[in-house]
Amino acid sequence: MAASGKLASFRLPPLPTVGELIKLYNLRAEKQLSQNFLLDLKLTDKIVRQAGSLRDAHVCEVGPGPGGLTRSIVNAGAADVLVVEKDTRFIPGLKLLSEAAPGRLRIIHGDILTYRMDRGFPETISKPWEGDPPNLHIIGNLPFSVSTPLIIKWLENIANRTGPFIYGRTRLTLTFQKEVAERLTASTGSKQRSRLSIMAQYLCTVRNCFTIPGRAFVPKPEVDVGVVHFTPLVQPQIQQPFKLVEKVVRNIFQFRRKHCHKGVEKLFPEACRVELTQEMMQKADVDPTLRPTDLTIPQFRALADAYAHFCTHEPSLLSYEFREELRLKHLARQRNKPMDTFMDK
Ligand code: SAM
């Protein structure tokens, strides 16, 4: 795991191409696992360049598959590459790569959704949160079904400085379905502005780097792919617990075409809804007739702060869920019983 300046000039010795490896090990892409491979090393080099300099870096690559992106990471001078791959079939090919880059490639056969990255790297690489980011990167071309839940989990980790962020402001370079990449980076007023835009941008500087046409993958997916780079902010733009911010943002965006007070109302039980919504909008100094897509992050901050203020005075508000109230009402109506029969006592 030694990091030496000499490694930056290291290039892998001649190896079978990624395409040849796929044939050699009969690595047919599994449709159920949404496997789409990148065989063009110019393209994988371009993805890796978005991460910035990888000289002597520690890298966690998620879903290396046949190892195209892995080769580019190694060639970019990373000193310690930890790959986490779920599908056993790729392990022999990755071992071949590891033998060609002695001491620089560690292979974990596991699931990135449960893998403890906080145990994967030495503590000595940590940097204070307020300082420069550590020389640790997360890079991956994952199936879309994994990359979206994963980024939400990692955003929560950023807010709490847990998981891969115990080392500091670890940077991420990841692929998403093009529409999701656009949502992650959408600015105020744009059509793609959504819950993901706010959740990502209040915690990180987010950059939509470039789009890869679907035809560049084997097999070709139905959609194009966006490469997105995240750098956690020193100071999150909203200083409330992640779950509270998530609740406010989710409620507001559930009626994305309506005035924003419609979603804010649903933060409160029916009995006090109108009164508290009015008070919250006034306290946050936000025009209730703005659409959710037109709200800026400082306006979301003001709304989250106002909601947190109510929750401090009435802690039970925090666990109130409008949809749960609806469900219980529906149940009560069906069974012709009072609603509190179904509530947790
Ligand atoms: N990185 C390779 C490339 O660019 O050619 C493969 C990309 S393919 C879209 C996604 C890879 O992620 C596959 O190798 C798949 O087996 C792996 N994968 C899927 N779900 C995973 C998970 N939960 N944890 C780790 N790897 C996963």
Number of helices: 12
**What number is the mean pLDDT?**
91
**Multimer state:** single chain
Task: Tell me which ligands are bound.
Answer: S-adenosylmethionine
Largest sheet: 7 strands, mixed
Structural class: alpha/beta
- Global Rg: 23 Å
> Can you tell me the overall shape?
elongated
**How many angstroms does the end-to-end distance come to?**
55 Å
* Total strand segments: 9
Report on the architecture of this protein.
Helices cover 37% and strands 14% of the residues. It is an alpha/beta fold. A 7-stranded mixed beta sheet has the order 4-3-2-5-6-9-7, with helices on both faces. The protein has a two-stranded antiparallel ribbon with strand order 1-8. Strand 5, helix 5 (144-160) and strand 6 form a beta-alpha-beta unit. Helix 6 crosses helix 7, helix 8 crosses helix 11 (297-313) and helix 10 (273-284) packs across helix 11 (297-313). The protein is elongated, with a radius of gyration of 23 Å. 39% of the residues are buried. Mean pLDDT is 91; it is low at 1-6. Bound molecules: S-adenosylmethionine (SAM). S-adenosylmethionine binds next to strand 1, helix 3 and strand 3.
